[in-house]
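Notes from the 1:1 (GR / supervisor)

We went over the backlog. Supervisor wanted to see one worked example end to end before approving the batch request, so GR pasted a single chain during the call. The sequence is below; no edits were made to it. Supervisor asked that the structure be written out right there so they could see what the output format looks like.
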Amino acid sequence: MTIADHDALIVSSGQVTITLPMGTQITIEDALLYPDSTRTLLSYRDIRKNSFHVETHEDNKEEFLLFTKLTRFGKQICEKISSLPTGLYFTYIKPIEHVAYKIIFQNVDTFQNWHDRLGHPGIGMMRKIISNLIGHDMENAKFPQNKDFCCTACATGKLILRPSYLKIRAEPLKFLERIQGDICGPIQPLSGPFRYFMVLINASTRWSHVSLLLTRNHAFTKIMAQLIKLKAHYPEHQIQSIQMDNAAEFSSRVFNDYCMALGIQVQHSVPYVHTQNGLAESLIK
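Structure output shown during the call:
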């Protein structure tokens, strides 16, 4: 529930071995497989069960977590893991070539055909579709059996790739160089008297801010107050552009004149092309 919320679908459990970037292998006796999760939580208990010692180390004012082992030559550092401002430590699991996760079914061929025809839905959606349609030869009761079903297309679509380092160097964004924003509402149920909320997010560091609104007309005053606060707190960083959609609150002449007076360029996305304001849209979701 901590990682995947209440609607998590655990498809498998058991022993698993993962490999960290420096080649350290960790075996987890009781692991839960949740394919839709974008992150994996590893406990200190599982690390210690693999005979590793855990200690913190500070290097150039940055904190690291070290996995060490005692050998006849002394203490050996097996893994060095970076820290986050939240107090957690993060690393990456080394992929084993190209592995598609497996789901267990009996009628594999029939399920594969309908899985492809319906556009590769997940297990839960397949159960709902099969139970509400006629004219097929599938039964929900035959879903979990002892044969393996593996969909490479689904695994490839869910594959999370790290961005290219070359692209990151070629397109650097400084702090507060570009801010994206959007308004959501009316929301149900209401948050007290507030019916809307506005989000602002920085494109480089993902700094974000949420403002509750009684009406959409209050958006201009809220964003003006936030710009003043940012300018006061970070005088060495200048806001160069603001990316908004074509809502009337962000396309008014008063708003454009105010941003022009501060030297801020206002950019509007193309109507119905939500990907141009994707950071704010994702934050709302």
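Supervisor's comment: The chain has a mean pLDDT of 78.
Batch request approved.
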